[in-house]
Write a structure and sequence with these properties.
With 139 residues, this protein is mainly α. It has one domain. It comes from Kribbella sandramycini.
Length: 139
């Protein structure tokens, strides 16, 4: 497998695992998830909303995992685009709602969210790179 394909598959696997962990946590322990630093910056707490978002993250984990396993070209692109639809809007919201009384958490949050956009974006762009054809043997 080419290094480019390995990168794309790695991004799919890492983000599938990330979404799985977050999805399970939000679905089954929403109050514990809400207790993380930065989440209480935009109250109020909503168990219903966190459980719904957790279920959606489980669905996203499934799509990313199936794309990583099958490595179907269309599914890979759709999975990365679907993840980016969330990650980009999430980054935009938080970039405009940083609470500088916690600069360490603000920087950490913005860094994680920026990586969560850039990694899938570069993987998506890599899917657009044509793969070189193997030369035919002269038999």
């Amino acid at each position: 497998m080419s290094p480019l394909k390995m990168y794309i598959r790695s991004v799919l696997v890492v983000f599938a695992a990330f979404e799985l962990v977050l999805g399970v946590w939000m679905s089954f322990l929403p109050a514990s998830f809400y207790a993380m630093p930065t989440l209480d910056w935009t109250p109020p707490y909503s168990e219903h909303l966190l459980r719904d978002l957790g279920g959606m993250k489980l669905g996203m984990a499934l799509i990313l995992a199936v794309a990583a396993i099958t490595f179907d070209h269309l599914l890979t692109k759709v999975a990365l685009l679907a993840y980016l639809a969330f990650a980009l809007t999430h980054l935009i919201f938080h970039a405009g709602h940083l609470h500088w009384q916690s600069p360490g958490w603000s920087i950490t949050l913005l860094t994680i969210m920026t990586v969560s956009v850039l990694a899938p974006l570069t993987a998506l762009l890599a899917t657009l790179t044509p793969t070189p054809k193997k030369p035919r043997s002269a038999n």
